[in-house]
Amino acid sequence: MRKIRVIGMLVLAFILLNQQLSNACTNFLISKGASIDGSTMITYAADSHTLYGELYYQPAADHPEGAMRKIYEWDTGIYLGEIPQPAHTYSVIGNMNEFQLAISETTFGGRSELSSQPGAIMDYGSLIYVTLQRAKTAREAIEVMTGLVEEYGYYSSGESFSIADPEEVWILEMIGKGQGEKGAVWVAQRIPDGYISGHANQARITTFPLNDSKNCLYSKDVISFAREKGWFMGTNKDFSFSDVYAPVDFGAARFCDARVWAGFNKVAGGMEEYTEYAKGIVLQGGENNYATNRLPLWVKPDKQLSVQDVMDMMRDHYEGTELDMTKDLGAGPYGLPYRWRGLTWEVDSVEYCNERAISTQQTGFSFVAQCRNWLPDPIGGILWFGVDDTYSTCYVPMYCGITEIPECFAVGNGDLLTYSETSAFWTFSQVANYAYLRYSDMIKDVKIVQRQLEDKFVTYVPSIDKAAENLYNTVNEEQARQFITEFSRNEAENMTKEWKKLYHYLVVKYTDGNIKRESDGEFVRTETGMPASPIFAGYPDWWYEAIIKATGDHFKVKGNSH
């Protein structure tokens, strides 16, 4: 998620900051009791117009005394400084380590005066990947992350983190102290068992329990710091982290929290109560003039969720709601649920907006991290990983204990300016961008292959688990890791090959705006072997009517039409 850093932008209005950052990421958090199999899950869509889809790998390592780690800002590659290495660091696959600890994030920006901290070393991306090398549990991760920013300073703006281990799921929200002090103020809450949560570039924690360390942790100065700045005058129990450090406005609701609302709406009833808020209508009141109609931090799903249910939460364009991106004129004749950026636009000096959905065209990679406590750690954690647009990606299982990255996901196998025939990102981007041309028809073909592959992966995993666990218990961990590495690598490479076949199929079927005829899975030929006359699908009636409304008699056939 390569966002432009907000140093030096104090003069910008808060709404502009929110709109700049609102093209970023989406997370959902699933507690053990909310999943069908007792696993915990968190999701991530790393959305950026400059982020390439690849799977990072950091092997476990021992470090001599005095060894240092250089810190580079994840978004820009800027060198920030260095910190001491511990004696041993754990292996990390993407955003999950070998002990099934997983961390993801979304940026909420918050008060612009807190976005710059001179001399700070730890940016939000480095916090994630350094912590995954050093912590085994979610609580340990919170301790490591907050300790690092306290000691070395916090380089980024406001951030929400999702943190999961096989037992617990937490949301941690953090914002720096600006130029006056080093470090950050923060609060973390555990998602209650049986519930789900989510965040999407807007701080979500409001009031929180002050004396419940089992379920809530916070910095000692999270309230006093706000008092010193004159941002909060009430009693401690009424302090709201979000309302003080990142108040909601139209952009925060419509571009950010609306995505959480959409994900909740797919699995939980009662979300119609928050429709007006999702549309950007923020009501305020009470002694502190906080927003009064915002989404709850967590909800109870109508049923326990499978990993595929959670994948489907990450695939949404507000279908079936008042914000449905397939229904307005901007979707064109084929219901394309994407709008080319910017996020806002003007007509006659009046500002309008595009919707910002969970699924978007500029995604680099996304995942569902699944943590399972009934298996040995290297086998129990699965990073269901996909590249490009979440709606048309395919999530393939990458076990957290693997020791090699598939070539199709490897760092250095192409980038956003370098095409690679063996890159999964470029393969999936080809399919998605071609499908955008005649979306309502082509996406049906894409979803068929997507479902076939994901169903296959979900069906295979229990058998792979059992075989790997047997190797782990009867041979050794190394053999188990080799086995799951080969499985993960083979499935990722085979998936990419199948997606190339899908691209070739779409090109043949839909070339020149026509649709080839098919029968029993084959394109139809005449008795002499020639291609059968294709379907001239044209445009829907409503589109023709819109053209006539805009052009009058310009296209009207007059006189003899022969």
Automatic annotation (TrEMBL):
Residues 1-24 form the signal peptide. Keywords: Dipeptidase, Hydrolase, Protease, Signal. It holds the Pfam family Peptidase_C69. It comes from the Bacteria. It catalyses: an L-aminoacyl-L-amino acid + H2O = 2 an L-alpha-amino acid. One of its GO terms (molecular function) is dipeptidase activity. PANTHER family: LD30995P, SECERNIN. Belongs to the peptidase C69 family. This is Dipeptidase. It comes from Draconibacterium sediminis. The lineage of its organism: Bacteria, Pseudomonadati, Bacteroidota, Bacteroidia, Marinilabiliales.
